[in-house]
Amino acid sequence: MPLSPYPDASTPLETGRKGRLVRVSAPARLHLGFLDLNGGLGRQFGSIGLAIDQPATQLTLGHAPADQVEGLETRRARRTLERFKSLLKLEGGYRLEISRSIPPHAGLGSGTQLAMAVGAGLATIEGLATKVRTLGEMQDRGARSAIGMAAFEDGGFVVDGGRGKRETAAPIIARANFPSAWRILLVLDPKCLGVHGESETVAFETLAPMDEALSAEMCRVTLMQLLPALAEQDIEAFGAAVSVVQRINGAYFASAQGGGIWSSPGVEGVVKRMAQLGAVGIGQSSWGPTGFAFAASQAHAASILSGVEDDARRADLKVIIVRGRNHGASIECAVADRLSTTS
User: Fold this and answer.
1) Count of alpha carbons within 13 Å of 88, Cβ hemisphere only?
2) What is the SS3 assignment for 274?
3) Does the N-terminal or the C-terminal CB of the chain have fewer CB atoms within 10 Å?
4) What is the enclosing helix (H) or strand (E) of 231?
């Protein structure tokens, strides 16, 4: 999907016009698990993901005499801006302000969303017809999973087909809207970081290929249970399928995250309590520590939250109720005295 930098396709913005601002809001995503960590069919990984409405990364980008990076995540944002300027051959300065950010290394896709948001802002303000996926690949996103890119592009519940021989991010092979009534309870542990950086690279290089039968089981469950349950809005069957994928993924990665399937013991305790209170599909997003659980309605989610609040408080955890986000990032272009929104 190419970015549309124009509020009206018949009226292009002037490239390089001073005084223009672009505001980008990019959604967090849950990584519910990999599908094929065996790779025997010539493709590897394959991911299941869901865009959610919060937390989110929000930034404002405009021209400036020299580069200025302010607000949250300034070091990572500055590196991203400098690399994009070099790759896109952009000269001049920019003022970049990060007003909201997804917690880093929490399993919510913060790095991809920041990179995509900065790239989209630059492409929009300069009138570049650059594809979203290309922007992500420029920053080495999508090396194993493309669901962060898909969350930025279109939102929703997505499945990618894994990396093959091509040096490009995995194709998206399924996308569906997440039911508007369903809710997701997130359990965040600000004291803990999930595996990332060099440790993550080493983990993937040293873990043995997954047993072929286990990969086959996850693919079958996804195709014949998870996706049909989502289409029919059957939350019990959906949750059961997510639990299978989580159980197999957790056991596979346990040795790389301290011997257990949860990064945070506190999150584990609260999420398991949620299951006792009626939540389904409990698990950990990516390397964690963020845990999740699904509920059929806002009222049910609120009841579950009420039941775990004391436990979460004692463990210094934060629990929030979020929705699935069925559209991608929003991009607002300030042109003269008006804002035009695309998403």
Assistant:
1) 29
2) helix
3) N
4) helix 227-231
